[in-house]
Amino acid sequence: MKVELKLTNYQLSFLNEMVADNLLSPSEVMSKENKSFIYLMTEIGSKLLKKAIDKRSHLKPFKVSFKYYEAFALHQFLYMYVDYVIKDYETTEQRRITREILGIINQKLA
To answer: Which domain of life is it from (predicted)?
Structure first.
């Protein structure tokens, strides 16, 4: 099942920054679940980066397609970091964007 998110360029660039800044590199002491989640988020980050490069001059919102499990992983990643890492992103604008993207993904997953 595919999940299509309609995002603006600003939201996409914020997602790219959030994933790039907060994604850990796998280590030998991590569990298999954590390693697989990091690998999946790396794949999602690559997909987001490619889409950002392709759509960098578009002003209107555009669709980004994910497989269901990719959308769920992105949702969990944002949800996990929104309260912990968002302290580094102190502005209310960045909090608003994160909550907005979480809402979009949550609606599509339901």
So the answer is: Bacteria
pTM: 0.84
Please report, as a single letter, which amino acid is at residue 64: V
Residue 40 has φ and ψ, to the nearest 5°, of -60, -45
pLDDT confidence bin for 70, thresholds 50/70/90 = very high
Distance between CA atoms of residues 57 and 104, nearest Å:
23
Return d(Cα 102, Cα 38) in angstroms, integer: 19
- In the predicted structure, residue 68 carries a pLDDT above the cut 90: yes
Structural contact between residues 25 and 38, judged by C-beta atoms closer than 8 angstroms: yes
**DSSP labels, 28-95:** TTS-HHHHHHHHHHHHHHHHHHHHHHHTTT--S-EEEEEEHHHHHHHHHHHHHHHTTTTTTS-SHHHH
Contact indicator for 67, 3 with CB cutoff of 8 Å: yes
DSSP state of 25: P
